[in-house]
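Q: Got a minute? One more chain.
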Amino acid sequence: MSTQIEMPSLSSLEYLPYLANGCINEDVQGKIGVYAIFNQAKQMQYVGYSRDVYLSLKQHLIRQPQSCYWVKIHTIARPSRKILEETASAWMEENGVTPRGNSTDKSFWTEPIDANPAMTELEKAQYQESEAINQIKIRKKVARRVEAEILEQLRNRGVKMDVRFNPKLKEKGLLDLK
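A: Always. Here it is, folded:
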C-alpha cells in the first residue's frame, strides 16, 4: 500500500492575495507547507517551505515588501522535508525559470536584513574611531533608521499586522522578526 502524498501542480492552485485587510491569512499560522510568492504582475519571485507558513510569509514580507503581492500555498499535515523539497522543485520546474529569490537573490529572501551598509560616511568614520560599546550604539542607530524605512514601506502597502524586530540583532546591525 502506497502512502505517497499527492503534490498539487502550481497551476492547479489559486493565486491568493498576500495581504487581506492588511494582514497575512492567519489560517496558515502553525501550518507546514510549501508556498510560492509572486509580484504584482504574478511573476514568481520565490518558492519556499516551512514548518510555519504564516511566520515565513511575514518574514519574507518585511525583507521584500515590493515583491510580495500574491501567493500560492499547499499545506501538509505531517512534516516531510522530502515532500516539501520535491514540491518546491516541481513548482520551480513548472514555472520554467528558477526565481531570483531561489538563486542570485536568495540571501535577500532568507537572511536577516543587514542595515550596516546604510551607514552614512560620518557614521562610518565614527564607527572606525569608536570603542566596541560605541560601535554597538552606532549599529543600533543605523538599524533603527532602516527599521523605520521598512515600517514606512509596509504602512504604504497597507500592512496592519504587528511587526516587531529582534532587539538583540540590532546590536549587530541586523533586522529580523522577533
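A: Residues 113-175 form one domain.
Q: Perfect, thanks.
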